Amino acid sequence: MKVSNETKVGALTAIAITAMILGFNFLKGRTLLKTGNYLYAKYTDAKGIMVSNPVYINGFNVGTVFEIENTDANLREIVVTIKLKTAYNIPVNSTASITDNPLGTPSIDVKLGDSTTYLQTGDTLKTANSLGLVGNLTNKISPIADQLKTTLQSLDNVLKNINTVFDPNTKNNLQQVIANLNKATASLTVSSAEIETMLNKQNGSITQSMININSFTKNLSDNNDKITKMIGNVETTTNNLSKADINGAVTQLKSAVEKLNITLNKVNSSNGSLGLLVNDKSLYNNLNNTIRSANTLMDDLRVHPKRYVNISVFGRKDKSGPLTEPAFDSTHK
pLDDT at position 317, please? Predict the structure, then answer.
């Protein structure tokens, strides 16, 4: 049977069209024969997801978006078919969310659950709304913006209060305070200069003090042997004092004081000769009279010596009476 050229051209055209369709779908990640592992996810907002967009689990590409279709004419629910590269153990409580990327294409991110039961081919994933990068930034910025708004309002109120409080007198007082601060700053500058002068290596007082301290410590170092000997002598003295019978000496001194007290008590009590001599006035009077009589006798012997020794050859005997009192009473002033 002879095949016409027209038939051959038509057949080749059909084959080329079929190959082109298959190649285009292959490049898009789709095949005409729906074989492999498929999961489904239902969304109310597709967020621009397209066929062949990647699907990630923990940042790893596990598949692509195979197909997107709506379940009704109102587009209230969009079903996304996910084609997995191979069979993965995905827990049934895992969730799939669409993550939009302002700088690239959106993708589906599957967050694994903790169930021990896994999804099978044809099952439907639970879905969750993902705010995405812009949404997260918006959510983070919104509280800050609210706080900033509140802060600005508070600052505005504070400024109003300041304007109310700062009358001309208050402003003048503030100017005086600032002037005083300037004076204080100038004083601090002068003080800093004085401190710098004190720290001067040539004539600074602190430097001189350090020199004196160094000289003192040097003298201590030079006389270290003498100081050591002095400390040794002090230690020897303290050892001798510790070994001395101080208690015995104190006891003896106490005994001597007691004996002295007894003696003084006896003197004051008129017992014994010394007590009588000190306390008995008659003994003093008798002793005074005895001395007076002795003085009288001596004066009589001096005035009338012939009465007692008669050695005169030509003279006559002294017939005058004896003295009854001293010629000069030496016992009385």
Answer: 55
Residue 165 scores a pLDDT above 70: no
Give me the pLDDT at residue 203, please.
58
**pLDDT > 60? residue 314:** no
The model's pLDDT over 200-238, given as tens digits with 9 standing for 90+, comes to 655 556 667 777 888 888 888 888 888 888 888 888 888
Distance between CA atoms of 51 and 46, rounded to whole angstroms? 11
2 lies in which domain range?
1-33
Residues 82 and 54 in one domain: yes
Domain count, the chain: 2
Task: Report if residue 159 sits inside a domain.
Answer: no
Rounded Cα–Cα distance for residues 258 and 10 (Å): 157
Q: pTM of whole model > 0.70? A: no
* Per-residue model confidence (pLDDT) at position 327: 61
Residue 126, sorted as left (phi over 0), alpha (psi -120 to 50) or beta, turns out to be: beta
Both 59 and 98 in a single domain?
yes
- What's the pLDDT at 261? 84
- What is the chain's mean pLDDT, rounded? 78
Task: Give the 3-state DSSP-derived string for the chain, with helices as H, strands as E and coil as C.
Answer: CCCCHHHHHHHHHHHHHHHHHHHHHHHCCCCCCCCCEEEEEEECCCCCCCCCCEEEECCEEEEEEEEEEECCCCCCCEEEEEEECCCCCCECCCEEEEECCCCCCCEEEEECCCCCCECCCCCEEEECCCCHHHHHHHHHHHHHHHHHHHHHHHHHHHHHHHHHHCCHHHHHHHHHHHHHHHHHHHHHHHHHHHHHHHCCCCCCHHHHHHHHHHHHHHHHHHCHHHHHHHHHHHHHHHHHHHHCCHHHHHHHHHHHHHHHHHHHHHHHCCCHHHHHHHHCHHHHHHHHHHHHHHHHHHHHHHHCHHHHCCCCCCCCCCCCCCCCCCCCCCCCC
Same domain for 98 and 123?
yes
